[in-house]
């Protein structure tokens, strides 16, 4: 073999290795960004999909789907109205926990619909919501599951209490998000 051919083969090998290292670093960076953005939802989807590549594809799809939606803050008046209604639901819990949990589930769905989240089905709404609220979406899923069990009479009083705590966390997060967006719009 002549030296030129050896040099070309070494150069090709170096280029291939560099490309593989660059791809690996880019893939690792993408994983870090998605893990940081989605938090516990990243781990949940990874367990569900059983593949990092598929899980990250699902999360990236959600992120892109979210970008196509017009999620907007509630007006101050709507925030106040929903807060009053939420307080009524909480008071109702004392007398009738099963009914209050179902009311909370409906109220949360109504708030999210008014903000622009998909109204199709619960799982679609939860998936899109996970882009903006990756931590409390777990609360949403848990509370909604309890509400569904309540509809068939399978939820205990302790389950119902947990559902209300989960819904409260979600409700507070959504209104806090609205306050941030309203402030941003006023100054921006």
Q: Secondary-structure blueprint of this entry?
A:
Blueprint: H1 3-38, H2 40-49, H3 52-67, H4 76-95, H5 97-115, H6 122-132, H7 136-151, H8 157-187
Helix pairs in contact: 1-2, 2-3, 3-6, 4-5, 4-8, 5-7, 5-8, 6-7, 7-8
Walk me through this protein's architecture.
The chain is mainly alpha-helical. The chain folds into two domains: 65 residues; 112 residues, no CATH class. It is built from eight helices and no strands.
What does the largest sheet look like? none
Helical content band: over 70%
Helix count equals 8
**So what's the overall shape?**
elongated
Can you count the beta strands? 0
Gyration radius (Cα, Å) is 23 Å
- Detail the poorly predicted runs: 180-188
Q: SSE order, as H and E? A: HHHHHHHH
* Count of domain modules: 2
Residue-averaged pLDDT: 88
* N- and C-termini, Cα separation: 67 Å
Question: What would you call the structural class?
Answer: mainly alpha
